[in-house]
Structure formats: C-alpha cells, structure tokens
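Discussion board: Methods & Data

I've been asked by a reviewer to show the raw model output for two of the constructs in my manuscript, not just the figures. I'm not sure how much to include, so I'm pasting the format here to get opinions. Each protein appears as its amino acid sequence followed by a line of discrete structure tokens. Is this the kind of thing reviewers expect to see in a supplement, or should I convert it first? Here is construct A:
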Amino acid sequence: MKFMTSKEIRDTWLHFFRDKGHSIEPSSSLIPMGDKTLLWINAGVAPLKKYFDGSEVPPRPRLTNVQKCIRTNDIDNVGKTARHHTFFEMMGNFSIGDYFKEEAIDFGFELLTSPSYFGFPVEKLYMTYYPDDVVAKNRWLSLGVKEDHLIPLESNFWEIGEGPSGPDTEIYFDRGELFDKRGPELIQNDIENERYIEIWNIVFSQYNAKPGIPRNEYKELPNKNIDTGAGLERFACVIQGTKTNFETDLFLPIIEKTEELSGIKYDGQMAFKVIADHVKTLSMAIADGAILSNEGRGYVLRRLLRRALKYGKKINLNEAFLYRLVPEVVKIMGPFYDSVHKNQAIVEKVIHIEEMKFLETLSSGEKHLDEALEKTTDVLSKEDAFKLYDTFGFPIELTVELSEEKGYQVDIEGFKALLQLQKEQSRASRTKEGSMKQQEKAFIEFREPSVFIGYENYEVSTPVIKVFDSGIVLKETPFYATMGGQVADKGTINGYEVTDVIKLPNGQYLHVVDNPFDEGEMVIAKIDLANRVKIMQNHSATHLLHKALKVVLGDHVNQQGSQVTPATLRFDFNNYETLKKEEIIEIETIVKNKINEALDVVTTEMPIAEAKKLGAMALFGEKYGDVVRVVDIASYSVELCGGTHVKNTKEIIDFSITSFESIGSGIFRIEAVTGNQLIEKVEAYLHSLIKDNVTLEEKRERLVDELKDISPKTVIELSQKAPFIGSYQDVIELRNYNEKIKEDNKQLEKILQQSKQKDALSNLEQYVTSNDKNQVVHTKDVEMQVLKQLVDAIYDKMNLDVLFLINEANDKLTFMCKSKTISANQLIKAAAKLTGGSGGGRDQFAQGGSGNFDVTELMKHIKGMMN
C-alpha cells in the first residue's frame, strides 16, 4: 500500500471507473435542487436519484463520482470520535440496469488490491455480507479472500420502506492490534472501535420491498442497480497512516493554522477537530449559495458556527477567527471544487459578519444566563430558558451546555412546550385562508380532466363538470389559478364575480364564485383583461429583475419567494449582505433598459432536458415534469415558468423599485411597480393633496416622504410624463435643494478633516519629549485616516528606531507601531494582550486596539519592553 494525497485518491478512483466505461459525473451543489425531501445532499447517490427512478436517462448506464455531502444528524459526536464529520466526500460507482453483483465485487477487489491502484494487502481486508447472499460470498472467495475474513450479518440489507432494496457488502480495513487487541468479533458484534475501519459499502439493489411481506418473498426488480459509497476521509486516514481522519491532508492544514492563531499545540484536542470540521462545512455550503438564518439549512450552519466559536474559547480564541481559516479550506478543497475558490472572499465576509454578531449575542446571553443561574438551585426553569432564547436570541443548546458545565440542569421539556405554544399562538394569529379540509378527500378523488386555455383565450363557453360546496370546475377555463407566486385572475362566470381560483390536487382549477351552478350547465367564463395585463406586466418584470440581480450581485442570487399581483410585484432573494443604494439604482436601470429595448418574450413547451441545455433557470424547491414551459426573453432571461407574460418587454411600459428591505438573515425583498402605475399612484396622491388644500410647503414635505424610496432620476422621469408639471417641479426643486445641502455638508466635512489633519501634522516636536530613539507617544481624538500619516511623519522627521503611538478616542484605544529594531508585531500583540484587545502585523509595522484602559500603565509597560 502506497502513500497518496487526497487528490491522488480522488483521481485514482475516478480514472479507474472511467477506464471501466463509467461516465464521470461532476459533484452537485450541496443544496438539493427540486428535492424537498432533503435538507442537504447527503450521499453520493442523492443527486443521481433521477436516474434510478427513471425520470431521466443517464448519459451512460455506468456512472462514477466524488460527491460533496453534508450530514448533520450527529453533530454532537463531531470531534469526539475519529471519523464523525458534518461535511464529507463520498466516492461512488453506479450501474443503472447494466452490470451487477459479481462485476461490482470484481471492480471493488481490483481497485483496492491491485498495485496499479490502491494496493491494499488482501489480508488486511474484511468483508461483511447478507447471510442469504451466497453469490456475494462465493465471489469474494473466488478472488482469494479467506473465509475467516468474510462475516455474515443480518444487518447487511438495505431498504427504506416500499421500493428498491437489496443486500449489501461492506469492506473493512484492519489497522492492527495497535488500535485494539480484539479481533473480527468487533465487526460481528457491531462494537465501536478504532481498529476496523469501514471504507466501502456496495449495495445490490435487487428486490422490490413490500411492507408486511417476508424478505424471502420480495420480487426481483426487472432492472437491477448498483449503488456504492466510499468515504474519502476514511480512505485518506488508512492510506496516509494517521490516527484519525483529522491528521490527514483534508484537515491538518486547518488545524495547523488554528495552532498558529491560538498559540496552543494540537495534541488530539476535541476543539481543534470541531473547528476544522465545522469551518470546512461552513465554507463549502456558503460557497454553494447557502445562507445563515434561523430556520432549515441556514439554522444548521448557524449552529455549526456557534459551536465552533464556543470550542474556540477553550483554546484561547476569544475573538472572530473562523474567517481566517477559510483560506486553508480553499487550499485543500479549491483545486477540486471551483465554487469555494471562486467565492472565497464572499465566504470569508459572511463568516466574519456572523461571528461578530454571535460574539455580541454570546457575551450578552452569558451575562443573562449567569444572572438566572444565581437564582437557581438545581434546574434552570423553562421560563428562564425560553426568555434567553426568545428575548436575547441565546441558542437553547448553548444554554444547556453552559448550564451543565456549571453543574445545573435545564428544564428542556418545559422549554420545548413553551416553544410549541408560541408556534401555535403564532399560527392562530394569522389570517386564515379559505379552509376546505373537510372536502380534501373529494378533491383527491376527483379526476375528470379540465383544461386551462387562458394563455391565448380570455373568454370561453364551456360546461360545468363538477360542483363543490366551495366552487365549480369547468371543462375549459381562461382563469389562471393562484400558483407560482402569481395571483389568480379576476373575472366573471355568467356575470357573477369569481373571487378566487385554486388548483386542485389533480390539476383542475376550482373557481370560487358566489352563485349556485349545476353540473352540465353551459356557462360563459370571462377574465378581466385589464387586470390580467397588469399581472403579465409585473410577472415578466420579475424575470427581468431576477436576471438583473444576478448581473449586479452574482450568480449566487436566487429567488426565495415572489408575489405577482395586478398592483405590484414582490421579489425575495438571497444575498450575503444588504444592497447599496447604487446597486438598487443599477438593478432598476438594467430592467428599464431591457423594457426599452423592446425584447420579444417567447414561451415554448419542451422536454426538461432540452430546457436545461438552453440554460433555463429552474426555481429552487419547484418540482417540474418531463415537459416544461420555458419563458425566453430574447435569451437574456430564460426561466421555467407556467405563469402569464407579455409578448414584448415594451408592453411592461416602465419599472420602478418602490421599496427594499431585509426580511431575514441573508434574505431581502424588493417591491416594484410597472406600467403607468407609479404615475397613477403619484397622480392620485397629488389629487388628495389638492383636495386636502394643504400648503405648498406641506405638499412638498408629504410628497417627498411618499416618494422617499424612489430614485431622483425616476422622479424627474415622472415630471416629464405626468400632467401635474408644477407639482412635480416642486418635488424636483426640493430634491435638488436637499441634494445641494448634502453636497455642501460634504464639502464642509472635507474642509474640517483637512483642518484637523493640518493641525495634527504641524509641530511634530510636541509629540517627542526626549532624545530617546525609542518613543511611546500618546494622542487624543486624532482621526483614523490621519493616524498613519502622523506615525510616518513623527518616525521619519525625528529619525526614530521605534515609535509606538497610542490614540485615545471615544473610550477606545488605537495602537500603531513602526520599528526597525524591535518587532512591531510583538509590541502590538503585547499591548493587545494587556488591554484585552487585538492586533498584529509585520515586524516593521503593526496596529491594533482595545476598549478603554489606563494609558499610563500601558505606556509604562511598552517602554519596559523597548528597554
């Protein structure tokens, strides 16, 4: 067995199976697309399910991959054991109806034992198999595996309810008695140990499982499949001869950087392992577009970050440090996974911001927890635990961990009950939408087809095919139902108002209309075309907005929700930070330009595979059939969408962003209007001002407040289009006046800064009171942008060897040190340690800072170090 790097292990795996006729599948994103059953991609087969269930035909029936995965069901064991991870890489080979058991075992044996590949000694390998699977046992024996290395286990059968299932064979590597004196009974009795490492599992998907039927009566599948998984981290541990996975080249560079930051040597401590594992998971997930939030996968990441920070405190890492480990993750993972390399700056920024936020929460929460524990005898009450969580944002898992460290228990069941009560109260407080649960069974059983014809037809004579208590179903309908973020059409059936349209489980549209109709009755269904046009304008504008967001902010931006009504459009999206005003204006301008370019909007139905070749954007979480509807706006925006749209972007007329806000951690919302609606809105507002007979000054103030979220450029455009020129001119004049004041204030601030800079840099002799070549200088209220210039000026003019400057401002201290004899980095770090601050840099120049501290004591300490 020869030493290999993790890169060489990946390459060996992929090249071996490529040479055996397998198509190499690239690793999918960690975020599942179109699979609501998964929080993360958690196995090598997960992104290939479309091939196994027959919904797509693979490029070849033989596939291989190295898939990045996240599993978080066992977070608390990470760091405690040698091989638990939240992020890991699964190597796999798959056969969809092609080769089966004997060939799969042959491949496994050759790859593992041949000197051309991994070269494992055969005597070091043990295989388990399902007792009834004589074929698998005999195949291993025929390859030279001794019978005492083959272990039958009843647990070697893979099934998860009804569907494909079958026996499997697991391959273990024996690391020897150094790790455990006991032998193969450790495998046979499923005893946790460090000696026998499971490195590969080969599943023979052979039967169709049926609940209630004995396994020996399962029917065989017509197309038998092979599904395998081999952990890269475990292969690396065995091949590189390390004690645990954490000493391999997949983790050790992160641990070594952590040693450097903490000043503590790694000797197997759990804290180093937790940090290395969690920062890798965070980096890889954020690089794939995940965000940190309070729910779902975002909460998982937030919990990992908080857990890593908590363990950082155990090794003297009391400030934000995880973001400084990201470059090590990129060095390890970047050559194989381009997303983490490409998004390194974003990953660092997101992690750093989240660290700073949590450190503030942690400091405050620990204080409140200590106060609560002071009043506690043995068990922290459910009320106190819930208050920490709900009022102060302190995670319950940290409340439990910190309380237990101090010898207290937490009423966790009581906490869960209060949390559940809050959720129920929150649900009860929401406005209930029309509930039809009592008819759910009737809806499911109703299967008569109904056809939507409303893309081109806005009125139809058609029979009623079903009457429910809550509405009617028509054989054909021009009414679009509420779905995909688009509200339902308005209109009439035989002159009676349709108040809502709901899509039923089997695809028909239920029309909510306040009038009794009979089944078989012929009716005239007619939509409100003016209302539909406004919906189409707003829906097509959301597609342009989505693309513009990607152009300005990056491809990581994706739709997180939308609402399209006749009056407005609302678009929710993810981003790592809030938008600047300039970015919002740029996004708005891009959409306006695309409208003015009069681009054709073409809708086409096609197979989903063909749509993907065109680069059509699928929305996260949406389920698509084999045939999809593609909305193509002159190849600028291409999306899968079933909604209604304009034929040409010029029909949108205009676009204006009316508001922007954050609605959660990393989730933002834009609201906008299209068509003439902004002008109509302002005209109506101006009418109300005239009607109210307010003064010109009041009119100015109220109108400017009404338009506060609209860019000045848009206001000017409105003044050119609207009939109220005089009123708009008032707005423009006031806007111009306000802009002039802002500009004047900027100039005054600039003059003030220049004056302060001139004062600070004149009379440099005032800072140096002796002929000593090593000087410690104390200043007050000097602006940050002036400090570096001041240090350079004093150091150069006074011809000093060492200058250590301490600036006192706003109850904080800033340190800067320039030196050619003593390490400036060491002096700054010493000051930081003394004052509870932070800092660092090079030997020639370094800087840092801290909260308030006795300056006299600090100066005395630094002078002592200089001498």
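Construct B, same format:
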Amino acid sequence: MKFATKSRHGTLYLAAPLKLQPLAHSVRLAVFRMAAVALALGTLAASTAALAQTAQASPASKRYNIPAGSLEAALTSFAKTSGVLLVYPPALVEGLNSPGLQGEFGINDGVARILQGSNLEIVNNGSGKYTLKKQTTPDSGLLPAVTVLAVNESYTQSLQGEGKAADGYRTRSVSSMGALGNMDLLDSPFSVNVVSQELIKNIQAQSPDDVYKISPSTLSQTPQGSGWAPMVKIRGFGSYDRAEDGLRRSYGFAVSMEDKERVEVLNGLSGFLFGAASPGGMVNYVNKRPTKDRLNSITVGNYGGSQNYIHGDFGGSFDADGKIGYRVNLVRQDGETAVDDQKIDRTLASVALDFNITNRFKVELGGSYSDYKMQAPTAYWFFEEGVPRIKAPDSSKNWSQPWIRDEMETRKLMAKATFEANEHLTLRVAYIREDQDRPKQDHTMNSVSSPTGYSQIRIHSGYSKTESESKQALADLSFATGSISHKVTLGYFGYTDSQWQTSYSPNTGWQGPYGFGTPTHVAQPVWPAVPPNSMYYASRTTNDNFMIGDLVKFNDQWSALVGVNRSTIKTIGREPDGSTNVEQPDYKRSRNSPSASLIFKPVPWLTTYATYIEGLEQGGTAPLTATNQLAIMPPMQSKQKEIGVKAELGGVLLSGALFDIEKANEFTDASGTYRQDGKQRNRGAEVSAFGKLTNAWSVVGGVTMLTAKVEGGEFDGGAPANVPKMLAKLYSEYALPWVTGLSVSGGVYHVGKQWSSETNTSRLPAYTTVDLGMRYVTQVSGRPLTLRLNVNNVADRDYWLNSYYLGTPRSVAFSAQMPF
C-alpha cells in the first residue's frame, strides 16, 4: 500500500487506491487506512473551509465560454467560473471529452451539459460542494482517489502546471495570442508551438539559439554568440521581431532564458495579432510569475566549456491568503565557451510581483537587470560573388580576434492590470520599457575572395543605446445573439524604439589574406581617442495599432475568428549633425490588416481551420556588407493563406498546416546596394508533435517542407538565399523502467540545402546534428535532487549555419538542481 498527496493544476490527489484486503490483513492495515483517510479528509476539509464562503456567494447562474475538449479541462474551467467546489475521482474522467459549454446556466444544468455523453452525473452535497459519479455505480471495493477543483486557482498557476516532462512537454494553452490574449492551443486557428519552462530547463538552454534548435519550426539565423541581436527564421523568413508577455517588441540583445516560463512560437503572419512584424512568425517570451506555494530552488552547473553558473529561483506569497506573490530569479555565470578564446560573463536579476487586489482585479509588476559581457564573439563571414563555398572550417576555433569584446547592459520594467468588471467585460492594460546600453561593440568580418584564404576587418565602435517601450489597452466583451456566442476584443497596442548611434567607429581596413588551416590573430591596434559627443540620436520607429476582433461560436462544431487591425508605421532617421538621414528618410504608412478564420471541430479532439491574414511590416535593414549598410527599407505588405489541422491522439498533440506567404523581396544587388524588387513567395507544409507516445516515451518534433521563389525583379524565378527546403527535428526522452528516476534523451536536427547567394550560384550543403542527454531524479536528505547532462553536437560536426555564420561545436552541459 502506498499513499501520497500532491498538487497539480490547483488540484489535490489522494493517490494509490486502497484495495480491501482479506480478513487476515485487515487488522494490520487498519491503522494505515485510517491515517490515509484522515489526512485526505483533513486536506479536503481545509480546502472546503477556505472556499465555502465564495462558493455559497456565487450566483445561481453565470455565463460560460468553455470550448469543447477534454472533460477534465472543461470541469476545471467550470469550477473556476462558477465558484463551486467540485470533487471526483480522477480516473472517472480520464480519456473522456466534453462538448463544452456556451451561454448562461445554473450549476446543475451547466455541469449536465458538460457531462453529455460521459455517463456521469453531478450530486449536490450542500454547502457549495458537488461530486461526480457514474449514473450506475456498483460497489467496487475501492477507496478512490480524490480531485478537488478550486475556484481560486489562477490562470498563472494553471500555466505553470503545463508543459511538464510527465506530460511529454505538451501544453494546452497559449498565454498570449497578441491582442487576443490567452487561447486554447487546440482551438486556435493558427500554427503555434510552445517550448515550456521544464523543457528549457532539461535541455539546459542558456540562449534563444538553444530554444530555436528544439522548436519544430524555427532556425537560428543570427546566433546570440555573434554579439548581434538573435535572429530567427520561420517559414523561410528571417526576423528580429519578438514579443514579451504578449507585448510586441523590436529586436533585443543578450536574451536570458532562466527567467522565462515558456517560449511561444507563432508560425506565419501576425499583423492582426501583434502589429507590424515579419511574415515568418512571432516569438513570444513569457516571463516567470509568482508561485502559489513557496518555491526555493538552486541550480549549479556548466553550460559548456568552462561556463560555470549558479541560478536561484524563488517564489511564493508574502501573506497567508496569497494576495501578494513574488518571484525572484538570480543568475551569475562566467567562463569560456566551447569556442577558443570566447568567454561569457553575465549577471541577471529579475523580480515579479502579483497583487490580487480582489477576485476580479489583478496587478502584475516586473523588473530585471542584466549585465552581459562577451569576449571574442563569433565572426561574420561574407563570400564574394562567384567564389564557391568552402567546407566549413573548424568551428571550435576563434575566427575572430581574442581581444574583440561586446558588452550589453539591460534594464527592464513592466506593469499589467486586469479587471473583470463582470462576466461580460474584461479590461486589460499593460506597459513595458527596456533600456539597453552598449558601452563596447567590437566586431570582425571575414571576406572570402578565393577558396584558399580570407581577409578580415576589425571594427571598434563607440557607445550606443536603445530605448524601447510597448503598451496596450484592450477590452474583451462576451455576449450572445440568440444561440450564437461572441467574444469581441478591441482596443489599442503599439511600440516605440529609439536608437542612439555613434559617430566613432574606427577600423583596421581589410587585412590578409589568411589561410583556412588555422585562424590568424593579431595584436589589438591602438585606437584613436573617442571624441566628445560622439553618440547621437539616430532613429525612432513607432508602430500604432487599433484593432477589433470577434471570436464567434455558432455551435459545438463551427466557429469563426474575424477582425481587422489598423496599423501605422512611422520612422525617422538622423545624421550626427541632426539632419535627416538620406539613406533612411522619414516615412509614415498606414494600412488595414484583416484576418478571417473558419474553424470546424467534427469531434472534440479534432480541429480543422482555414485562415487568411495580412500584415504590414517594417522594411529590412541593409547588412554591413552593403554600400548602404544599416539603411532601413520602406514598409512592406504581406499576405498569407493557411489551412491546418490539430488533433489530440492519445497523449500527443499533433498539428499540421499548409501555407502560402508572399512579401516584398529584399536583397543586395550587383552594385552592392540593398534594396527591394519583386516579391518573395514561400509555400510549404509543416507538421509538429508534442506529447507522450507511451507512459515512458516523450517526443517533441516536426518537419517543414518549403518551396521559396522570387517573382519579378532582378532575380525573377530564382530562390532566395538562406532558405532551406527542409527542416526536420526530433527530440525524444525515455524513462528507463529498470532505474527509477533515470531518463535518457536524444535529439536529431536536420537542415536541408540552401542557396548561399541571391544569384543561386553557390549552395550550402545540408547538415544533421545529434544531441544526447540524461536526467536523474533522486533524493538527498529528504530533498529532491535533479542531475542533468547534455552533450550537444555529439559528433562535433563542422557546418555552415547559413551564409554568414558557422555552427556551434560540441559542448557538454551539466547541472544539479535542488529545491529547499
């Protein structure tokens, strides 16, 4: 006999049913049974006492908007909205689905509709407490497990309970679909992949590149190790765009992962949801929020090479009622990476506070400070036209210079408020500000003019900085027109980025050529003194959005999402003397970006959809190798058609989509000028899977097949550079049955061939990398201890990540984590 209690998604379980034993054993087990029952009843009594007053005060009927899906999820949502205490054995609802609930209902009628087809019924036990039972219940001789759905479980706590290793890292919701807010993952008419906090932790990710590697649809384009802002490629389009807690941002440097709850990747256009952004997709970083129960966790480890670090994660409530919660994350890291001479020295401190002022009014605050220093960032490579792509040189060597340094200091503040005025109206406002200072920004570029050697330029730049702010003010209105229910979202959201550049940027000029056998390192030059007032106000980009959308539910099978966003992009560019930048003229452009989706659910576990969406996008930035380097192109209009399907198959969420996207084509022409001409059209298919194939075997993976073409312009009929035809990934974990607590993992990541130039005269070979790992969970002095080991790029393969950067060499990461 075993007995345990644990909390999951705000529920309480009394695990391991207690079987009735033969008479010879009854005396021996009596004490244990009584203790188990007493503990369970005592816990239930405490929960009931805490919630009884709220449950009794709940109105006789309320309006519900519960989507079809698993019966457990529907009952959880019903308990939160109704304010009742609902008790039932978890095995009673396992594997069952519900048609959902739309409209205004009392307790009995509402639950009865949720239970349709389940052969279950509700029993009112008085004092706001209800139980479920089978309509015909024979005496089984078992004391069943008990589940309590509590009204005070917050959405934050529900989010924190998703994506666990025990669930195969599968999540059920998206925390923020831009202006629309949170949505059920199965029901959303968009292709979305979520990398949960526990998966981030178990692969020991320290930068967005590690997340992009494992996410089924993403490919790192500009690695964070380059010293530039991390750039991701989705559906063949590169983007620096990102969001944080649903607030649209522009690019940012030195992103840390230890204070992130999850990373949500929206594949495809997001103009209606996030405003001006790349048509490839949007990456939303969700920050950790306070925990209901006390959390004290320390992790010590090594991210590879000699990058030793310590990470403390602390959360809980300041008061017994949980009205004020806190979350603190502290990180200190220092040491060399797996690349020669490359070193990362960083400090991170983040704080989150939640104020549950009333049951309907919540205020969230947050702030963080990051100091990120990098020595010998990854070099940028450029092959001149007509020069064939050489075999990738040794990526563990420093092809930059040992004295090249980058430093980024980041300060961030965030505030959110959510007010549920009543069952029909919710108001949401939010604001986030981030200041990034770059006191040092040295870089190297390697130019290859022949297969036998390369030339190098070293650039030493002065102080620069960026100030960014994002805000939103939105309202959600729920109502019905006859039998049709609506959830209308309307309001404003937008962001502003201001940049101060430097007129001080001495360089060595092109030196070389040097051979590919080993890097050539030289002494640091004596740079000229920094002149006074070298930093100047260089540019400002603003994107304002006014949107309205309606999620319409016609019946249990058919629904639609329609809306439009009026998006306006304004930019200004200035020279050091304050005059208008001739290569970046001021502009202002507005456009309506519509979106329309039709959703059909033939059965509760299957969703099909068709979506059309448009978007306005800020023009790209000319690369450093262009004659008009860093010039920003005019805004572009993008369009996307997509059909998709999502299915819950056992413990796996399987998603697939066909898409067709078009946008203006941007490239560097024969004269070296970066410009727009013609359009780029990417058509493809993608599929992804998250979940458990068996109780012991978890999978996270996906495949993207892509056909990208240029239509019109100088390169009509060609293929855009750096767009692989195939992206295939599979990460898997298996819990070994013969060693309790030990899991082994492995990842296989394949990137297909891609053209390295716009003229399609040189092609990068396909590459495949393999990762291996293991995780062991045990106890030391009564406390859980988790040991992790991950080997990335086991074969130590050298490869071109894309035209500009080498891939990462083999590295070994390990850590030990213990809560206390």
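Answer (T.O., handling editor elsewhere):
This is acceptable in a supplement if you add a one-line summary per construct. For B, something like: The helical segments are 23-57, 71-82, 107-114, 155-160, 197-202, 208-214, 271-274.
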